[in-house]
């Protein structure tokens, strides 16, 4: 087992550090920036189904559901295709309206999650085209779907998903870009720019992993918190959910993710000087609005840990701590903003003496209802 951990303390840390390579592996043979194209035969062979779809319905559980939420923003923004994201367990028991004009995308690291598998069978029985995004090759979901793409993240042993999540987002971004190019939602120039920026992601993740000591020092300050709040907007709202999930899974600290603007409809009541609030405030999209959310937190004495774009000064002046991420397109930021939250949860859990690879009560793959 020590050998399998490759010199790391545990699998989770190893898997966090494997992300630059895992994302590169996900790109392999698909992202061909020099030829200005994305090659994915599973999409090319079924292009009509995707382009003529009434909508895409994404079904998944846990972290994979968060990747699905990121995909909702990606598909709608880059390819202008309407998307709904569903918890597989809710979808299958709701008598959902599905037709043969719908495309269902099932996302699953293990490919064995019982609820996701059942949702696929239901969608297929109603005539939908079902596409899988799985990590485990030959898994039940990979076999049960009509077509699909593997994430190629390699084995993920830690129960808390890390590299599986970023590689799911990678595959889903490639699909969204490919569809956006095919239906002309993206101009050739914009498409090319995305390919160039995508190609930089593995190096940027590598660069981000170097801030580990800084994140560790923030973890030391907040490790005894009882509650934490994670806020983000747009593409980074699902990252806030995932950040909170990661913390609760392995540290057992209660954490909630929220869309930043919804804070005033509830969570703001919880804010006091004991409440750390992790805010994603990259310099794109809704930056000014997030800055005003940060000011509202400040006015209530909450502790602010902000994830910002490198070189940011405005948030730095207000926040208690900042974590910088390299600059990229807004649609690609989830691949970067996720990383510091993984490290933060990891360090807090280790400081609290938790078993990060096998947290209590959780299973890597939930194969029963
Ligand atoms: C369990 C795992 C999570 C995972 C979820 C969905 O809860 O602990 O890490 O995100 O199942 O699993 P899947 O294999 O379908 O992605």
UniProtKB/TrEMBL annotation:
Subcellular location, record wording: Cytoplasm
Residue stretches making up the SIS domain: 46-185, 218-359
Record GO cellular component, one term: cytosol
Class in the EC hierarchy, top level: transferase
Key words of the record: Aminotransferase, Cytoplasm, Glutamine amidotransferase, Repeat, Transferase
EC numbers for this chain: 2.6.1.16
Gene Ontology biological process terms in this record: carbohydrate metabolic process; fructose 6-phosphate metabolic process; protein N-linked glycosylation; UDP-N-acetylglucosamine metabolic process
GO MF term set: carbohydrate derivative binding; glutamine-fructose-6-phosphate transaminase (isomerizing) activity
Active-site residue list: 364 (for fru-6p isomerization activity)
Catalytic reactions on record: D-fructose 6-phosphate + L-glutamine = D-glucosamine 6-phosphate + L-glutamate
Signal sequence segment: none
Its job: Catalyzes the first step in hexosamine metabolism, converting fructose-6P into glucosamine-6P using glutamine as a nitrogen source.
Assembly behavior: Homodimer.
Protein name (Swiss-Prot/TrEMBL): Glutamine--fructose-6-phosphate aminotransferase [isomerizing]
Species for this entry: Polaribacter glomeratus
Gene that encodes the chain: glmS
């Amino acid at each position: 087992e020590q050998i399998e951990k490759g010199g790391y303390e545990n699998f989770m840390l190893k898997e966090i550090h494997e992300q630059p390579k895992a994302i590169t592996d996900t790109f392999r043979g698909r992202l061909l920036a020099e030829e200005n194209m994305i090659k994915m035969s599973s999409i090319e062979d079924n292009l009509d189904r995707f382009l003529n779809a009434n909508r895409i319905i994404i079904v998944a559980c846990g972290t994979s559901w968060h990747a699905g939420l990121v995909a909702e923003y990606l598909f709608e923004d880059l390819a202008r295709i309407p998307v709904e994201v569903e918890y597989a367990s809710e979808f299958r028991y709701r008598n959902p309206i599905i037709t043969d004009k719908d495309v269902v995308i099932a996302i699953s690291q293990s490919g064995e999650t019982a609820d996701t598998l059942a949702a696929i069978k239901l969608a297929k029985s109603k005539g939908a085209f079902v596409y899988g995004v799985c990590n485990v090759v030959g898994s039940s979901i990979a076999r049960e779907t009509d077509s699909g793409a593997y994430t190629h993240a390699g084995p993920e042993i830690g129960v808390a998903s890390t590299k599986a999540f970023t590689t799911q987002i990678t595959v889903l971004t490639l699909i969204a870009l490919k569809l956006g190019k095919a239906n002309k939602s993206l101009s050739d120039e914009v498409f090319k720019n995305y390919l160039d920026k995508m190609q930089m992601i593995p190096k940027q993740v590598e660069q981000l992993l170097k801030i580990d000591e800084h994140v560790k020092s923030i973890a030391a300050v907040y490790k005894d918190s009882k509650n934490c709040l994670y806020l983000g907007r747009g593409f980074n709202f699902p990252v806030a959910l995932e950040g909170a999930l990661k913390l609760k899974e392995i540290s057992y600290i209660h954490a909630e993710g929220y869309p930043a603007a919804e804070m005033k409809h509830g969570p703001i009541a919880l804010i006091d000087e004991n409440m750390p609030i992790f805010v994603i405030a990259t310099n794109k999209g809704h930056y000014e609005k997030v800055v005003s959310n940060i000011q509202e937190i400040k006015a209530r004495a909450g502790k602010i840990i902000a994830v910002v774009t490198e070189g940011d000064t405005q948030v730095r002046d207000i926040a208690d701590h900042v974590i910088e991420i390299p600059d990229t397109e807004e649609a690609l930021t989830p691949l970067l903003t996720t990383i510091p939250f993984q490290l933060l949860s990891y360090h807090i859990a280790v400081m609290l003496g938790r078993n990060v690879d096998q947290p209590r009560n959780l299973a890597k793959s939930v194969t029963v209802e």
